[in-house]
Design goal:
globular
Length: 203
């Protein structure tokens, strides 16, 4: 349990291919809370770049997201504003009983939760490409396109919506190089950091 009887809460952000798909669920299982993956999949970002340029028009993408019903948006509200409202509502709902949440701007939205641990996973680009190709069963070329597309698009979505660049480190409690420590090492470091943060808050 976290401080004040709250359920454990960890937010994750990863540079594409850093192993959040392995680390996140394992941390959630160890803490006894739900695992919540990305709201926008790699496949959806692939579809937003049909020519395979490695880039996504973020503003256009906001208007094609499945959870944005353009017809229901008030005329004075932009699609971006609607996405922000939905983003906050979903993250607050998903985190009310604790959880390990990947992306979704949860690091910013839950910044006021004192017991939450905010973590970023990184690794050298070449290592990330090898892992991504193997884990997603895609070619090296496709992994390279996804890496460029996702690292840029996911950062730009956060910048457009929240004025926050997740590639910077100032909002994270912990940044882990999964190539240096391995996935199991990252899992253990996150669990240890969570316990240490709770102990410090409870002191």
């Amino acid at each position: 349990m976290g401080t004040n009887g709250t359920r454990p809460l960890v937010t994750l952000f990863e540079a594409y291919g850093s192993g959040a798909d392995v680390v996140g669920p394992a941390v959630a299982e160890a803490l006894g809370v739900p695992w919540v993956g990305q709201s926008v999949s790699s496949e959806e970002l692939d579809a937003a770049d049909p020519r395979g340029t490695g880039r996504v028009d973020v503003k256009k993408f906001f208007r094609t997201l499945g959870f944005v019903d353009i017809g229901s948006i008030d005329l004075i509200e932009s699609p971006e504003s609607s996405v922000i409202r939905g983003n906050v509502s979903s993250v607050r709902e998903l985190s009310k009983d604790g959880g390990v949440i990947l992306g979704r701007n949860a690091t910013v939205i839950l910044a006021d939760e004192p017991g939450a641990l905010h973590v970023k996973l990184v690794a050298p680009r070449e290592d990330r490409l090898i892992y991504a190709a193997r884990s997603a069963n895609i070619s090296g070329r496709q992994a390279e396109l996804r890496q460029r597309r996702e690292d840029e698009a996911r950062a730009n979505m956060s910048i457009e919506l929240w004025g926050w660049d997740p590639r910077t480190t100032d909002r994270y409690d912990l940044v882990i190089n999964t190539s240096a420590f391995g996935h199991q090492g990252a899992i253990e470091m996150i669990l240890d950091a969570y316990k240490r943060k709770q102990a410090r808050l409870g002191a």
